[in-house]
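Tutorial, part two.
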Amino acid sequence: MIQVLIFFASVLLCACFAAILLLIGELWRVSFWGGVPSIFSTWAIVDAIISAKVLPRDGLILDLGAGNGWTLRRMWRSGMKGPFIGYEKEWWPWIVGTVWNSVTGAPIILKREDFLNAPIEDARGIYLFLFPSILSGLGGSIEQKAHHGIPVVSAEFAVPGWTPERTLEAKGITNKKAKVFCYRTP
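Running the prediction step on this input gives:
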């Protein structure tokens, strides 16, 4: 009996040590390499987008700044058909998402590439969860490449210079109500 307790205690200790190492790695990456913290949209935000049906159920959905692809997996589980492609610049969330998609069998492609390489012209819907400084540079590219009338949804941060056709509210990453900006490309 004592051997079983020692085994479980050692497994728990190893798991805690691994979690601490991951946290230190994330802090190191953000602090010294200029990375962006890996934060994903809340369930409430993604569920609000799904229930409001602002993105199409069929056709290519792009997630620019996909992190580990959680948002796309949630959309897939809700019955959206896709295909789903997420773009993420940071290596750690990309690795975690790629492994998670393999384990769950989710038909989601995560690419570790610049957002500007995304096939915006083929998209039927675009999801964004990015800082305003990144959104300001990306907005012009989306306007140039996307077809007329494509829905673009930006969680928590408005796309500078764009006027939303609709605004949703849901609990955001700070546990306060956050806005979800819904646009259509010109």
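The beta strands are 58-64, 82-87, 108-111, 125-128, 151-155, 166-171, 177-184. In part three we will examine how such features are distributed along the chain.
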